[in-house]
Structure prediction request, 551 residues.
Amino acid sequence: MKKVTWIVFVVLIGLCGLGYFAIQGLQAQNRKKSGPDPNLVQVTRGDLVQQVIETGTIDAKKAVEVKSRVAGRVKQIFVQEGDRVSAGQLIAIIDPQETLLQVRQSEAQLRGAQSSVARSRIEISQRRITAQTALAKARLRVRDLEQELRAQPRLTRSTIQQAAAGLAAAQQQYQQLAEVTQPNESQSVRSDVREAEASLKNAQIEAVRQRSLLAKGYVAQREVEAADLQAELALRRLETAQQKLKTLESEHALERQQAQERVRQAQAQLDQAQAGQFADGNKQRELEAARIAVREAEAGLKDVDALIQSQRQGQASADQISSVLADSRRQLAETEIRAPIAGVVTKRLIEEGELVSSLSSFSSGTPMVRIEDRTSMIVKLNINEIDVARLKVEMTSRIDIDAILNESFTGKVTKIAPSSSAVGATTPSSGTGADPVVKFAVEVTLLVTDPRIQSGMSAKCTVEPVRRNGVLRLPLEFVGSDENERPFVMLVEKPNDPQAKPVRTPVVVGVSSGAFIEIASGVQEGQTVRKPEFTGPARKSAFQMGSGGDE
Prediction:
């Protein structure tokens, strides 16, 4: 019995051993069929690259909207969309009539202002001479009066004699004029009038006679016309003689009036000279008045300075009008719209006959055409704040254009905006709401342009801020961190032993590409590590609200 028991026990032990080895064989076969353990990975050496990838729009680095600095109606346009233009090329003309009128008005105003300045200059010269002459006369008068006061009796007698001689001369001139000169002139002119009247009468009689003869057929029509012409000429000679007589009579009346006035003045001077015999004391008062006249003449000389200031004011007005004229001429020149840069006309925004507003401090002006200089093209990007922090100016970028397949272009980062712009973006956590995403404007310039590249095309730019070649690396999820944020890995010393326990080993890490992280020290190439257990908060389903269990 005991022997049977031992035999059964040995058989059972053998069966258990066979079962164990069979199970181990099946597990090994299953491991071979299912592939390597996804929780194990080896430390490898390779390249580690950080990439910033963003899609943007291609545009010309230099583009201008041509506007007119002169308002008016478009008279002609010489370019179409797609035309290539050179700098300074005439592309449009604004009707210059209104601007030309302004130029002519300003020129007329300037001529008037310059004439006023010239007149002021002449007036100043004349007033200076007049004032200097008046001053000299006043001083001379003072000197004369002082001499007269010293020799009054002799001066009085001489003045009376001079005044009497002047009166006699004036009376003689008036008598000669009234009795001899004017009657002779009047007689001659009246004789001309009578002669003209007789000639007119004879001419009229002859004209009547010629018409009578014409009616009877004795003379030709031209004889009548000649007689009428002679009558008309005689009438004109009579009118001329009568007008001459009328003018002569007016002149004679004026001359007699002037002669009578000279007689009265001479008589007044004589009366004044005779009264001077009894008014020697007035000489002293005249002397004082003459001295006052000297001071007034000196003041009058100073008035010239005021005129000089007035002239300067007029010159300032002329200069101002000259500036307005220069601006009007500039505006006239700018009625010819010329291309400010060389490039391609991408948009024509107006047509002939349309009105355009001018570019000024009060108006942004009407765009006429858009010109792009396509010798330098850029890609405009909006990059989030995390990626933009990795970028620097002059970094190289690979540019892939959607419209040009199987070909890449090279560019450089040329501009990074110093401030951000908030762009509404929908995030998974917010459903359909919009959260502000902080982005920065970045420009990438193509190093080589291509005729196939057009403004508005979409382009994907790839920039590599960091590239480390031939470094030790691990997938990012295989590197954990402890409570003090110190990195570590779970090193598996015996990767072929399923019962081997991983050892927590601290490491020094470098840069990360998002998928891999650089291992600077702590492990060696070829060693195996296990993915560390997740120790963070429990994950929640995307459709769970509030707190809940694991997925």
User: Anything to note?
Assistant: Confidence is low (pLDDT under 50) at residues 424-433, 538-551. The CA atoms of residues 39 and 531 lie 5 Å apart.
